[in-house]
């Protein structure tokens, strides 16, 4: 009885991805590409796996790609990948040696082999091992090429991001209805976790919940202290569908004061102007300035050292990176928006933050997250 396939995209879409990758390989004089970073493996093969043991995919300019992975992972690979061609190894073998042996057995040991020097899986020790095992190969850097190819999302990728955004909206609504004075960040996270599971997210990992103060709160830890009057509950929800993550930030204040509403109104007005200027061809640095400059001029923050937006897309559970900074909004950002890009755009000051999952369309943007952009009073 054959395995039931559960691939996230059509075989045709994977074929288009492979064709684009091969064009980039040809431009860089690469004959065989060694792919080992988790997100990029998923992009090319459809299979996502942690690096509890090293694994890779070899993509030649011509011919079929071949995956190298633990034999114990063969079944999930065949179930979720469009590929059938793989080499399995027992857990006591050295994976790098298996990859090198596969390269030699295919006659690629004298080829120009592309590696991603920025890959968190290509450690210095592994690279030295490849050099020793493949002394006649010429290693060339492919850093950044796959990230650029992944920047514009396909209709199916956008569909996954749209569904993840809908789950973020549903979960945010449930959290706001359930939290209040006396509840904790953990209580809010519990509601979000259950909402994610109920509405079909990949996992119940809820996101970030903290009692916010000042400007450096976006990555603060979860506190055990119950909410009291005037406390700002910062919520950033991170649901994923087939690994594609939406993001949504909202503030909820326990019995807010007028100043809370005033700050929120200023931030929303600034963000609205930025959103109105987002369209294909717009410069990232200019869009960043539309947030950074007025917030500083209004005295909402004394300094603004963080980015104002970044790429959204595929974040496998097993990746060490929870955010994709392939394209970020900064004062020195030197790139332009393109149709099909998706971003997490956010503004923050004085413990209050708003964010949206934003799709760049042919004429402007679409907010994939639809939760009302206002400060919630709880």
Q: What is the count of β-strands?
A: 17
CATH topology call of the largest domain: Creatine Amidinohydrolase
User: What is the distance, rounded to the nearest whole angstrom, between the alpha carbons of the first and last residues?
Assistant: 55 Å
Bin the helical content: 25-40%
The CATH architecture name of the largest domain reads Alpha-Beta Complex
Biggest sheet, spatial arrangement of strands: 4-3-2-1-5-6
Shape: elongated
Supply Rg.
Answer: 23 Å
Q: Give the topology string: H per helix, E per strand.
A: HEHEEHEHEHEHHHEEEEEHHEEEEEE
**Strand-pairing-aware structural class:** alpha+beta
Contiguous runs where pLDDT drops below 50 for at least 5 residues: none
Detailed description of the structure:
The protein has 378 residues and is α+β, with helices and mostly antiparallel strands. The protein has two domains: 11-150, 3-Layer(aba) Sandwich (Creatine Amidinohydrolase, Chain A, domain 1); 155-377, Creatinase/methionine aminopeptidase superfamily (Creatine Amidinohydrolase), CATH 3.90.230. It contains ten helices and 17 strands. The chain has helices at 11-27, 38-45, 74-80, 95-105, 124-133, 145-150, 155-178, 185-199, 258-277, 284-297, and strands at residues 32-35, 56-60, 66-70, 86-89, 112-115, 138-141, 207-212, 232-237, 240-241, 244-245, 248-253, 309-311, 324-328, 342-349, 352-360, 365-367, 376-377. It has a six-stranded mixed sheet. It has a five-stranded antiparallel sheet with strand order 13-12-14-15-16. Strands 7-8-11-17 form a four-stranded mixed sheet. A hairpin with a 2-residue loop joins strand 9 (240-241) and strand 10. Helix 4 (95-105) packs parallel to helix 5, helix 7 (155-178) packs across helix 8 and helix 9 packs antiparallel against helix 10 (284-297). The longest helix has 24 residues, at 155-178. It is elongated. 44% of the residues are buried.
């Amino acid at each position: 009885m054959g395995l039931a396939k559960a691939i996230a995209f059509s075989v045709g879409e994977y074929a288009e991805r492979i064709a684009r990758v091969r064009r980039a390989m040809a431009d860089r004089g690469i004959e065989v590409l060694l792919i080992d970073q988790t997100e990029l493996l998923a992009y090319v093969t459809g299979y996502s796996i942690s690096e509890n043991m090293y694994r890779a995919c070899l993509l030649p300019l011509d011919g079929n790609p071949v995956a190298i992975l633990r034999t114990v992972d063969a079944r999930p690979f065949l179930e979720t990948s469009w590929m059938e061609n793989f080499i399995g190894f027992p857990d006591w073998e050295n994976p790098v040696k298996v990859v090198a042996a596969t390269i030699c057995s295919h006659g690629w040991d004298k080829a120009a082999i592309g590696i991603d020097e920025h890959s968190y899986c290509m450690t210095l020790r592994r690279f030295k091992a490849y050099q020793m095992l493949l002394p006649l190969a010429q290693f060339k850097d492919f850093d950044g090429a796959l990230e650029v190819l992944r920047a514009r999302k396909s209709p199916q990728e956008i569909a996954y991001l749209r569904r993840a955004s809908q789950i973020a909206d549903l979960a945010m609504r449930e959290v706001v209805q359930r939290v209040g004075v006396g509840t904790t960040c953990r209580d809010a996270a519990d509601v979000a976790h259950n909402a994610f599971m109920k509405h079909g997210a990949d996992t119940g990992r809820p996101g970030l919940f903290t009692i916010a103060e000042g400007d450096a709160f976006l990555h603060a830890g979860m506190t055990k202290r119950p909410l009291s009057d005037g406390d700002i509950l910062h919520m950033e929800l991170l649901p994923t569908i087939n690994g594609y993550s939406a993001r949504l930030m909202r503030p909820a204040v326990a019995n807010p004061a007028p100043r809370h509403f005033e700050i929120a109104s200023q931030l929303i007005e600034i963000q609205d102007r930025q959103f109105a200027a987002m369209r294909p061809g717009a410069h990232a640095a200019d869009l960043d300035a539309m947030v950074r400059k007025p917030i500083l001029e209004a005295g909402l923050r004394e300094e603004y050292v963080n980015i104002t937006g970044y790429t959204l897309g595929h974040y496998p559970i097993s990746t060490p990176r929870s955010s994709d900074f392939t394209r970020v909004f900064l004062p020195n950002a030197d790139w332009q928006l393109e149709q099909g890009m998706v971003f997490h755009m956010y503004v923050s000051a004085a413990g209050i933050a708003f964010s949206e999952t934003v799709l760049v369309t042919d004429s402007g943007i679409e907010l994939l997250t639809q939760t009302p952009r206002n400060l919630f009073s709880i």
